[in-house]
Amino acid sequence: MAGIFLILASVSLGAEDRIHKVQNVFDPHSTPAHGILGIAWIVLAICALIFVVVGSLLVYAIWRFREKRGDQGTEPPQVYGSNQIEMAWTVIPLLIVLVLILVTARTTIEIDEPAFPADALQIQVVGHQWWWEVVYPEQGFITANEIHIPVSSEDDPRPAIIQLASADVAHSFWVPQLGGKRDLLPNHPNRMWIEPEQTGVYWGNCAEFCGTQHANMLIRVVVDTPEEFEAWVLNQQRPPREDPAVAGGRHIFETMTCINCHAVGEKGAQNGFGPDLTHLMTRGTIGAGVGETSRDDLYQWLKDPDSMKPGCYMPDMKLSERQLNKLTDYLTTLK
Amino acid sequence: MTESSPTTRTATEWKLPPIPKVGVLCLIAMESSLFVIFVVAYLYYIGKSLNGPLPRDVLTAPILASICLLSSSGTIVLAEHAFKANEMGRFRFFWGITWLLGAVFLVLTGVEWKHLIDEGLLISTNLFGSTYYPLVGLHASHVVVGLFLLGAVFLFSATRRLDKRHLMSVEVISWYWHFVDAVWVVVFTTVYILGVY
Amino acid sequence: MSTSDSNASQGSIQSTEALQAEAASRSRILEWIMTVDHKRLGIMYILAGLVFFVVAGIMAALIRIQLAVPHNHFLGPEVFNRMFTMHGTSMVFLFGMPTIAGLANYLIPLMVGTRDMAFPRLNAFGFWIFLFGGCLLFYSYLGAPGIYGSGSAPDVGWFAYAPLTSKVFSRGHTVDYWALSILLTGIGSLATAVNIIATVFCLRCKGMTLFRLPLFVWMVLVTAFLMVLALPPLSAAQIMLLLDRFLGAGFFDTQTGGSAVIWQHFFWIFGHPEVYILILPGFAVVSEIIPVFSRKPIFGYPVMVAASIMITFISLGVWAHHMFTIGMTSVGNVFFATSTLLIAIPTGIKIFNWLGTMWGGSLRFEPPMLFCMGFLFQFLAAGLTGVMLAIVPFDWQLSDSYFVVAHFHYVLVGGLLFTVFAAVYYWYPKVTGRMLGGRIGKWHFWLLVVGFNLTFGVQHFLGLLGMPRRIYTYEAGRGWELWNMISTIGVVFQAAAILLFVYNLVHSWYRGKQAGPDPWDAWTLEWATSSPPPSYNFRQLPEVGSRRPLWDLKHPDDPDWYHEE
């Protein structure tokens, strides 16, 4: 109980912050998360009541019936059972269970099979070892690791439907404040939805062990105002910037096998082994959360990916310092 | 206190089930559980192969092999009757036929597999191959074990070491053999009736 | 000759001279290696389980050290992933299962009044194949280089989800060691299961009808049934996995149309009954100890039997509650939520019956009873968090998070481990003839209660704050630092408790108080023979008239058969 209050207390500390690092299940910011918390409270209350009642009876029995000095050599009355008592403590739990089954059925269907408006935002997320490919099919662009969604309000709900697939092993998408988790399984498409009611950046994790860097397959969901979202979409739809000042770096990118895994605009591996980099600098992190899109982190990542994400599949291309600098300069122009 | 303890009130004959029979029933339960999973996998993957050869292209129902195996359940019953009547010669005859029928079943299975391999079906070819060979193979391996058991009993009988003291052993081995046949009924239905697409 | 006679004749007593002659002709060690005696095999199972427990416990301590602070560099990801995989696999298969096998093998023949298990040689075979499997699993640390060149200890989690375990995504041999070792230990467990069933059905002493079996025997019997039905699916799945990896089959190969989900179904069809296999013997132990230390018979014996049977059946139908997040239909989700909630009922009934046994009794809080009390509170909590996890939408938050880790450690440590300690304190006198130190026992208990609840209690909060399982590190600022630190601190108390326990075991072996045949004034047949029992268990096979034969002997004026239904 104390812990729950501590958790709730930690909520108020972060209330002003737009970055939601603390993903408290008791602090939902999205319709399905609210639905889940509703039923959670019911279950928690019932379970707490049972724990208190049964626990108190146990404590009482331990105290009241402990062996006393005069007990030596005698045995207490030998009671073998009681059919009425057995009936009572079978029927009551059965009734509680019945209630829980009904409540569970209703909430499960409510959350998993809602009626969506025809213009709901469609996003496809494909899990890779150890990053998230994010596709906006109707808007026509691909990005990675960071999802942008417009904020919803009561008069303007903007649910986002997320189709989940995997390119390799099982993963799971979990941002507690926005909704329950759903797995990304190869050969088994899934679907979830969120409807965030507050702007900000929400942190999440992959929640199904997927190999060495499962811990660093982090999610960022950025909830924008409708205007911010439109601007972001427009930017993502633009072709990549071709800054002549970094032509050297771009040349390295296109000839040093980078384009075998990564795409920048039309060039390179579309739906490739590595994340799309067209608008890399609009994201907050690299490596699915192990570094920032700062020049220093980018440089270090290119120089030795294993130093930031040991075991990741991006190879160390053994570039010279000059090449690294040019390449970093180029990447920092991909806004 | 004159009332006698309920021990003396329970039946004077304390009858408990025989250990070998309980043991072999447990074995049958275990193996059934094992087979269920392979059968479920087979059923689940019906129609899901991404490429051929498909069952309808290469499978022919092994009628002769099935007749052999299933009638061996009949011959083993005849052998048991002979054993109980202490007619050891007749016992050896029918027990031997049972063994032969099982062996013919295995040979015919082998022939079928050769045909399938020639048609290009390997365990790695597609989901049909992946589920067919393990299921039929698991059953065949149980037939092999059965042949070892039947063979041992036959040898003991042939060297006149087997007598009516060993009735229980003969019975439990025949229970195992009946189990192997029952499994074949399930496998046959799954592969050659339900699974032909 | 009736069949029961022919069963019993398997246990005829050799003369003393013959026994002595036999003993003189072999060395002690060879005797133990070649033994088929259920008591010696039982001791060997428990000692082997204890060794693996300590090793797996050290792994857990290392895990907790790595997670004590964010971005720790104590263990790298590869080592960490091996560590939690080996910890889980070892605890379940190399500590849980053999300890159960050890208790069952030691106690069942004594409790049903016979000389040995039904299949003594199969018993020995089961032990040695288990030990071989366990050694093979640990040999993987030395075996062929894995993808990272540091040995091949399994690193895919104890439930080894596909397709991470396919040849493509696990290129070394970590998965092969996992599958092969557990195939072998599984055969050992099945051997034990068959032995238990055959012994209980076929070797009971005169008068011991099934409804006069000690509850320990009942619950281990239903456990054995579960093993017979639930272990083969795991073996089947592992065989399929090995066929995929070595012969190119496609059972779980999603690239050729195979299904990752079907691995989960097959695994959990085994995996859920497995956790009942692990906890039912814990219930069995508690059902023996609480009555003796309350000085009353178990409350509601027939209901306890019925509840155990119900748990056995229902547990075969709840498995997909481990899969609520894979995207089943609502019908599927609700079905498994229903079966899972239903199984809470017979489980709860047991807790109430244990409470009913204590009620009106005269409770003695020696170490065996202390550990049972710890079990009652902790298992109550575990059961309730299980109910929370059964609520599908709530599970969409809690699944695969530290909340689940907390839940199952409350079941397996707060539940099972506490009952294992209760069992050791209770039956050590019977096995060795000496009492375990009571004062050390109390320190052991309280240190463990503090440490265990510190470590795992706070993990519920971690789950509710979004921390997933199986991550080797985490960012600062997620609200996880405090709880992780507290969780790690709890390890110190638990380690101290285990050290005290080991010391107690060894010290009492040499210096423990002499126990005599019946130090606890108990009522079941194992206390009717000497401590330790002779190799033939009973000079004369007993005859019983009730569920508490020794109560009847000690209270001829008011025997149980007047009262039992």
Q: What is the count of distinct domains of chain B?
A: 1
The CATH superfamily title of the largest domain in chain A = Cupredoxins -  blue copper proteins
What's the CATH topology label of chain B? Answer: Four Helix Bundle (Hemerythrin (Met), subunit A)
Overall average pLDDT of chain A: 93
> N-to-C SSE series of chain B?
HHHHHHH
Q: What oligomeric state do these chains adopt?
A: heterotrimer
Distance between the termini of chain B: 77 Å
Radius of gyration of chain A: 27 Å
What's the helical proportion of residues of chain B?
over 70%
Domain module tally of chain A: 2
Q: What do these coordinates show?
A:
The complex is a heterotrimer of chains A (335), B (197) and C (565). Chain A is of the alpha+beta class and 335 residues long. Chain A folds into two domains: 19-65 and 114-223, Immunoglobulin-like; 244-331, Immunoglobulin-like (Sandwich). Chain A has helices at 2-13, 31-64, 83-112, 226-237, 247-255, 258-261, 295-303, 305-308, 321-331, and strands spanning 19-20, 121-128, 131-136, 141-144, 146-150, 160-166, 171-174, 182-184, 190-194, 200-206, 218-224, 263-264, 267-268, 285-286, 291-292. With 197 residues, chain B is mainly alpha-helical. Chain B contains seven helices and no strands. Chain B has helices at 6-9, 19-44, 55-58, 63-84, 88-118, 127-158, 167-194. With 565 residues, chain C is mainly alpha-helical. Chain C is 66% helix and 0% strand. Residues 1-5 of chain C have low confidence and may be disordered. Chains in contact: A-C, B-C. At the A-C interface, α1, α2, α3 and β10 of A face α5, α9, α10, α11 and α12 of C.
